[in-house]
Structures are given as C-alpha cells and as structure tokens.
Amino acid sequence: MLKSISLQNFRSYKKAEFQFDKKTLIVGPNTSGKTNLIEAIYLLSRGKSFRTDKDPQMISYNKDLARVKGSTPDENLEVLLTSGLVLGRKTAYKKFMVNGVAKRRADYSESLPSVLFSPEDLELIIASPGLRRRYLNDALEQTDRDYRFALINYEKALRQRNALLNLAKDTGRRNEEQFEYWDKIIIENGQILATKREEFIKFLNKERKETFDFEIIYDKSTISKDRLGEYKDAELGSGVTLVGPHRDDFIVYIKNSKKGHDIKFYGSRGQQRLAVLQLKLLELLYLERKLERKPMLILDDVFSELDSSHINLILGIKNFDQAIITTTHEEFVGKKYLKDMQVIELRKDG
Q1: Contact assessment for residue 126 and residue 264, using Cβ atoms and an 8 Å cutoff
Q2: Which CATH topology does 127-292 take?
Q3: Residue 349 region by backbone torsions, left for phi larger than 0, else alpha for psi between -120 and 50, else beta
Q4: Per DSSP, what are the bridge partners of residue 45?
Q5: What contacts 306, CB < 8 A, 6 or more positions away?
Q6: Among 21, 23, 260, 320, which residue has the fewest nearby CB atoms (within 10 Å)?
Q7: Is 272 helix (H, G, I), strand (E, B) or coil?
C-alpha cells in the first residue's frame, strides 16, 4: 500500500507531504486541493492523470517542473513532469522511476494497482462512449501487459493515420504506401484490444452481482482491411479514422427485464448508479483475480453525490488493500467507519 507521498509544484501544491494508513479520509472544502492530491496519487499509481491528457497542466502555474514521489513497503516511486527545454526543444516530458531506475509507463504501471471512483464515474452509463472505453482501459491496462503495449501502439498509429487522412482530405490525394504501413499496425493492435475487451466483458457478465444485476453487450467497432476499405471514401471526406477500438462502446441491459431494456434509457437514476457501483466492484474483483493481490481503492468526493444507502454500500467494500477517500464533510462517513480511519484535514486553497 501507499505509505507516503510528496509533491513539488504539482497543481496547487508548491511543496507538501502526506502519510497514509490502510484507510485514510481526506476532508476539506472545495478548492482545498483534495482532487489535486487524488490526481497525484493516481499519477503515481497509473502513470497518467484522470483529469487531463495534457501533462503540463499538472505543473503549478509559472513552474517548469513538477515531481511526485511515493513510497510503498517495497518500492520508491517517482514521476517527474516538465514543460521546459528537453534536448534543446521546448516540449512536455514525463519520466517514471522505481527505486531510482527509469521505467517506461507500460512497465511502471504494474507497481501500485488502483481503482478510482470519482463523481464523473457516476455518469458512466449515461455519458459518452469515451468514459466507458476508459473504464475498459482502466481494468485491462493494469492487468495485461499485451493490452498496454497494444493500446500504446494503436493510439500512436491512429494519430499518424489521422494526420495522413487530414492531409489527403486537404489535397485530394492518398499516399497508399503510407496508409498500408499504418493500416497494418492499427489492424494488428486493434484486434488485440478488441479480443481482450471482449474477454473482460464476458467476465463482467459471468460474475455474481450483489448490488445490481445486468448484462453487458459489447458494441464493437470491428477493424480489418476489408472494413477500412468500406469506409475509405467516408474517411477521405471526414479526415479521421471511422472504425476501430477508439469507437467501441458497451450497452448495459437490465437483467431479466422482459424486453431487455437498456438501462441508459429505461433505468431509474437510482438503478443507473447502482449499476455503476456494481461495475466498480467488479473492476476491483477483476484486478484482484488477475494480479493475485488486492488493489488500492481511491474515492474522490463521491459521497456528496450519493444517498446514505449507497455510501454504506461503498464503505462496506472489502476487496481492496488500501482505501484513500476524500469528502467535503466528515459527517458523510458514519462513526462506525471513522473509528478505523486516519483523517487528514485540508484547508481552503491547499
């Protein structure tokens, strides 16, 4: 579990250090830095932010470098962010280290597995497909090395292919030789992603659901040479790749409903939130099964969005190695649970 974390020029934290127990409650009003601290913990765990794709945004205003360090019983972890000069060029740069040894992110993310539950996740079922794809990636990136590398290769190839499509759209000409190279990469890696997502969804459907029973249908955007050929003219007009795992989605159906109702349209708000809670519980279970150890549970200010029965459901979760929880009011957590928690109080504006 995470014993401590130190922050330098990270978001609102110029310099700060925190110690954690098996269960730690972080209490503070809005703008006190709770989510910034959770983002740092997530970065230390996963090697990326859950709030932005632009790493320099995590660096304090007017600073060129941010550093996040953490310690577990076995390892010292560090992530270094910079938006300054690297190799003579103005660029963003991110470095990962485990016990002082540099690591690639694909290898680094094995060190401190975690499951995050944030207010945004409560919208998982009714929000855009991107949030559901992130849910699939969050579970699979941490448990499957092949998936991690396939996702990295696929996203890189997709960016290059979209750049070629945009150029072809502007000029009216396609360089078929260049497309053949990038098509091969996105097809090979895209099929790996789809296969492993399909396996994970089978796991979700098979496992017992104590909170809310549902069935998931994988809405797969199949990628193949023939399918890319089918969309060739449409892609030339749009300037982007129109098929592949970056367009995947899944649909949650209410189990045992006579017409197989899609919970997004037919479920109540309470049913939708119970289904999201169940998905997060299954994500925890999946990580535990695959890694043969319990992950860290990170809860970022979800209590203010939930009623007391849902809060008790979350606080009763057992299959985690450590829980780090933020809230605006300590009263959201009953005395029954508070007595076993370390409490960190944050003041307004960090």
Answers
A1: yes
A2: Glutathione S-transferase Yfyf (Class Pi); Chain A, domain 2 (1.20.1050)
A3: left
A4: none
A5: 122, 273, 314
A6: 260
A7: helix
Alpha helices, DSSP H only, in 244-292?
263-266, 269-291
Burial 38-65 (b: 16+ CB within 10 A, else e): bbbbbbbbbbbbbbeeebbebbbeebee
Distance CA 135, CA 129 (A): 10
Residues with Cβ within 8 Å of residue 333, at least 6 apart in sequence? 25, 303, 311, 315, 325, 327, 341
Band of the pLDDT at 257, cuts 50, 70, 90? low
The two three-digit tokens of residue 82, written as one number: 């910079």
**Overall average pLDDT of the 247-255 stretch:** 95
Residue 329 CA to residue 27 CA, distance in Å, equals: 6
Contacts of 322 (CB under 8 A, 6+ apart): 1, 2, 20, 22, 23, 24, 296, 297
What's the pTM value of the predicted model, to 2 decimals?
0.89
Task: Please state, as a whole number, how many other Cβ atoms lie within 10 Å of the Cβ of residue 148.
Answer: 20
Fold of domain 1-113+294-350: Rossmann fold (3.40.50)
